[in-house]
Structure formats: C-alpha cells, structure tokens
Design a protein that fits this description.
There is one protein chain. By secondary structure, the chain is an alpha/beta fold. The chain contains ten helices and 16 strands. Helix 4 (127-140) packs across helix 5 (157-168) and helix 4 (127-140) packs across helix 9 (266-277). Pfam families: ADH_N, ADH_zinc_N_2.
C-alpha cells in the first residue's frame, strides 16, 4: 500500500510517498481502507521538529492523525464492527502509526461508526479538533449566559467546533479572526467578531471571564491584559516549560493559566456524535486528492482559510 512518510525534519518537501506492506491486524484491531484524512497543525509542528520532546528524533515518521474509512477486516476479539462498516477514528500514537496511508490497522477503541448525515471528509475532520474543543470546555468549568469568553483564532478547525459548543451553552463569545472568518464566526455563534488584521484585541478595554488562544500567538503574559482578576487563560499550544510553570503561576494569582491537552477517547466522541446528530456544522474548506499530498500540506500550513483541509482517496 501507499503511505506518506518522512526521513528528516523539514517543510512539506520532506514528505514522500512510499510503498509499504498492507498492515496485518492483531486480535483487538480493525483494518480500515482510508477514504479521508484531515490535516492538523500538529502534523507540520511534528514534521518541522517543533515537538521533539513528544515525537523523538527517530525516522521514518508517519503523519496524519484523524481519518475516516471502510472496515476491511476485523480482529477476532473485536465486537461491534463488521466488514463494510463506515467508520472514523484517530491514531493514538503518531510515532507508531499514521493516517496518511491507504490502509491502517488500528485498535478498535480508536474508531467509531460514522454518522450517516456527514461525509467521509467531515468525519475525518472531527476527532482531534472536536476532542480538543470538549476538553477546553471541561477546563473552562461552569459556563452560562453571564460568562464572557474571548476565542482568539476562532475559525480554524478547533474554533469551528468550540464556537458552536459554546453557543449551545449560552456563553457570550467574542471571536477574533481575520476578515476571511467573520461570517463563519457569526454563523457558528459568536456574539461579537474582531478582525485581528484591523484591530488589536489586547488594546481593547473589555476583559473576559475566559480567554482561549487558538492562534498560538497570544501568550499568558499578553492575555492577562484582557482577563478579569479571577479569569482563566486556556492554552492548547503550550511550550514544554509552560506546563510546570503554569502550576507555579496559579499558586500566586487569580488569573489562572490552564493547559489544554486533548486525548481523543470514546468519552468525548459520544458527545461529538450527539452534537453531530444535533446538526454540528463541519466546514470543509478544501479537499485534495491523495497524490497531491505535498500541495495539501503546504496549503493547510499557509493558513488563511476557515474550517478544515482534507485529503481524500478513492
Ligand atoms: N492541545 C491540544 O490537545 C490541541 C488539539 C488540537 C489543536 N491544538 C492546537 O490548537 C491550535 C488551533 O488548532 P486549529 O486546528 O484550529 O488550527 P488552525 O485551523 O490552523 O486555526 C488557527 C486559527 O488562528 C488564526 N490566526 C492566525 N494568526 C492569528 C492572529 N495573529 N490572531 C488571531 N488569530 C489568528 C487563523 O486565522 P487565519 O488563518 O484567518 O489567519 C486560524 O483560524 C493549533 O496550534 C493546534 O496545534 C491543540
């Protein structure tokens, strides 16, 4: 089978299509013919060597975390799935496996039945950003109509799901996005939209109960300017030093620095499936064919779009 792998850290030029044996499954695994995979910032952060503590420095490396496809073979101890089922899922350990391939052999605990009201591209776009959004909401604590939330970088994949889930909770959401995303932010439930290219959010007078940065460009020190004395800053893009540092910072200030690290599991997927049933909007900005993988990764990394970029296979 064909798979996309790389032998050195770098930009999308290091990605190569290689020929591998079709994977054999263990008793607790399922073999899936992949129909779609979505691109996440972590794909290029790992590839560029920005997450070496987590990724290590061994090669070759796989890429691609979340995917959808069709079950081709089921392990002897796997209940609930059969050949032909349409499923979606997420790899547990990108160091050992990747979704940028024609097939994946994966633990049955990492896949779920694809709802019939969404496409393969939409299902492949859900696990990473959906789980991250639900984890962030869990970390926010109690939210109601009096809660004011600033979402910085609101119309990428993560923001798309987060805005809609926050809307369901009735929070008052201010979304920071470029002009490309303004209409989407409103559609997904933002009460107010700020275009970061024309207005500096940190120089505004408003303060918020919760600030979450999805752009990776607003740090805790900056965010404090728009936080109330007892606000939370949620940080899903922490530098390694910030994980212990946040614990110490939180001992001395009411302005809490909260790290968000999502771990996709059934606990979150059930809530996501419920949201999909309720009509969750999953915007697919652009779909690339498998053979155009380099173009797809370059395009996704450049940014400037709303929703998700997906690679599809026949
Ligand atoms: N910790 C976890 O478990 C976890 C899980 C999932 C994702 N993440 C991280 O969360 C972040 C968001 O993920 P994503 O999938 O939504 O990424 P994404 O699709 O690349 O979205 C990032 C958003 O930030 C916006 N942005 C860029 N520069 C900005 C600026 N200066 N001010 C305000 N907004 C700006 C972009 O808008 P324009 O393109 O219009 O400029 C884009 O909408 C990524 O860094 C990702 O790695 C963490």
């Amino acid at each position: 089978m064909k798979a996309i792998m790389y032998q050195a850290f770098g930009n999308a030029d290091v990605l190569q299509m290689v020929e591998l044996l079709k994977p054999a499954i263990q008793s607790g695994e399922v073999l899936i013919k992949i129909k779609a995979l979505s691109i996440n910032p972590m794909d290029w952060k790992i590839r560029k060597g920005e997450m070496k503590l987590m990724s290590g420095t061994k090669f070759p490396k796989y890429t691609g975390a979340d995917f959808s496809g069709i079950v081709e073979e089921v392990g002897s101890s796997v209940p609930g799935f059969k050949k032909g089922d349409e499923v979606f899922g997420v790899v547990k350990n990108m160091m050992k496996e990747g979704a940028s391939a024609e097939y994946i052999a994966i633990a049955a605990s990492q896949i779920w039945k694809k709802p019939s009201n969404i496409t393969f591209a939409q299902a492949a776009s859900l696990p990473v950003v959906g789980t991250a959004a639900l984890t962030a909401i869990e970390k926010m604590g109690r939210i109601d109509s009096t809660t004011t939330i600033l979402v910085n970088g609101a119309t990428g994949g993560f923001g798309m799901i987060l805005l809609q889930l926050l809307k369901q909770k009735g929070a008052h959401v201010t979304a920071v996005t470029s002009s490309n995303g303004t209409a989407f932010a409103k559609r997904w439930g933002a009460d107010m939209v700020i275009d970061y290219r024309t207005e500096e959010v940190l120089s505004r007078k408003e303060t918020y109960d919760i600030v979450i940065d999805l752009s990776g460009k607003m740090g805790y020190a900056d965010a404090k300017q728009v936080m109330k004395p007892d606000s939370k800053f949620l940080n899903p893009t922490p530098k390694p030093i910030e994980i212990p540092a946040s614990l110490i910072q939180n001992l001395f200030t009411g302005k809490k620095h909260v790290i968000v690290l999502a771990d996709p599991s059934t606990k979150y997927t059930n809530d996501l499936l419920y949201a999909v049933g309720q009509g969750l909007d999953i915007e697919i900005h652009k779909v690339f064919p498998f053979h155009a993988f380099k173009e797809a990764y370059r395009y996704a990394e450049r940014g400037g779009y709303t929703g998700k970029v997906v690679i599809e296979q026949q």
